[in-house]
Amino acid sequence: MLQDKITQYTAEINAFTTQNADELEQFRIKFLGTKGIIKDIFDEFKAVSPEEKRTLGKVLNEFKQLAEAKYQTLKDGSTEAESSKDSDTDLTLPGEGFEIGARHPLALVRREMVEIFSKLGFIVAEGPEIEDDWHNFSALNFPEEHPARDMQDTFFIKKGGETGDIALRTHTSSVQVRMMEAGKPPFRAIMPGRVYRNEAISARAHCFFHQVEGLYVDENVSFADLKQTLFYFVQELYGAGTQVRFRPSYFPFTEPSAEMDISCTICKGAGCGMCKHSGWVEILGCGMVDPNVLENCGIDSKKYSGFAFGMGIERIANLKYEIKDLRLFSENDARFLKQYKTSLI
Ligand code: DAH
């Protein structure tokens, strides 16, 4: 009697299948519920004879396990089916992916400059952005009354005191001094970094910008070495055939001093808005390190000579990418920055 019931229900359980949560719940109540079939069968089992109990006990347990296993399998399957049915996501669509960031144009130019000079044996050196008067001005041979020391150009942090004025460095030439004070010649380094000037912000001027300083000090360094080094740099950066010209100039820390122009990178010398129709654009200041500067840094100016140069990274980037408004470099407008995606990581 009981055996027949079990056989019949076993067939029913084996045949049962559903992906519907409600139907599955009906199944659970029918077989596994507190008033369900299994409960009834176990109640009936209590009344059977001891001999029957022996054979039926095992059958009964297997039957119960079958019902539970069926329920569990269908439940796992139906939750998966339900959840994928609930979301509208098409799992075969391609993923959204991550947008790859871009290098800042100034970082790209800086890196290119570092790479070019490294081929000539120049290492990279850095110094602090907060400087004292000695490193930013005095050691570099600036006269006491030099206008660059004026409040209008320099952001002073502290006036006077034991170490003299403390200010945000106005140029990276201060790093030359630190390098020469700390070591022994020969020196061959470029020094990239941020500099600050007390200027009203406009398309053409900013209160901070970036420079790369260069220094080469050894025995018998001449102006010809300076010219050849900078000529090579320009050919590498702007392409073979770029012309250079040197104009006499003045800087307190170099003697003689010059400014270097290159043939306009936009019109190749024909004349355009970028070069104000002259065919030439100025890119840097340079010269032979003034013997006073060498001596200020503890270097024998009779034995050693050197050249130095300094240029604005924004200016170089401007000529490379035609970025005319300086403010773009620091506004972090993603639409602007995105344009400079590069395969270089
Ligand atoms: N320090 C100068 C400036 O900020 C740039 C400069 C000119 C650096 C001539 C040099 C140099 O090393 O020799 O305008």
UniProtKB/TrEMBL annotation:
Comment on bound cofactor: Binds 2 magnesium ions per tetramer.
Which reaction does this enzyme catalyse, per its entry? tRNA(Phe) + L-phenylalanine + ATP = L-phenylalanyl-tRNA(Phe) + AMP + diphosphate + H(+)
Q: Name one GO cellular component term.
A: cytoplasm
In this chain, the stretch annotated as Disordered covers: 74-93
A Pfam match:
Phe_tRNA-synt_N
List the EC numbers from the record: 6.1.1.20
The UniProt record lists the Aminoacyl-transfer RNA synthetases class-II family profile domain at 109-339
Record-annotated membrane-spanning stretches: none
* Catalytic EC class: ligase
Q: What are the protein's UniProt keywords?
A: Aminoacyl-tRNA synthetase, ATP-binding, Cytoplasm, Ligase, Magnesium, Metal-binding, Nucleotide-binding, Protein biosynthesis
Show the InterPro entries listed in the entry. Answer: aa-tRNA-synth_II, aa-tRNA-synth_II/BPL/LPL, Phe-tRNA-synth_IIc_asu, Phe-tRNA_ligase_II_N, Phe_tRNA_ligase_alpha1_bac, Phenylalanyl-tRNA_Synthase, tRNA-bd_arm
Its annotated compartments are: Cytoplasm
Where this protein primarily resides, as one coarse class? cytoplasm
Q: Extract one GO molecular function annotation from the record.
A: phenylalanine-tRNA ligase activity
Which cofactor(s) are needed, names only? Mg(2+)
What processes in GO biological process is this protein linked to? phenylalanyl-tRNA aminoacylation
Protein's UniProt keywords contain Nucleotide-binding: yes
Q: Which residues take part in binding Mg(2+)? A: E255
Family named by the database record:
Belongs to the class-II aminoacyl-tRNA synthetase family. Phe-tRNA synthetase alpha subunit type 1 subfamily.
Oligomeric state and interaction partners are given as: Tetramer of two alpha and two beta subunits.
Q: What HAMAP family has UniProt attached to this entry?
A: Phe_tRNA_synth_alpha1 (MF_00281)
Q: In its UniProt entry, what is this protein called? A: Phenylalanine--tRNA ligase alpha subunit
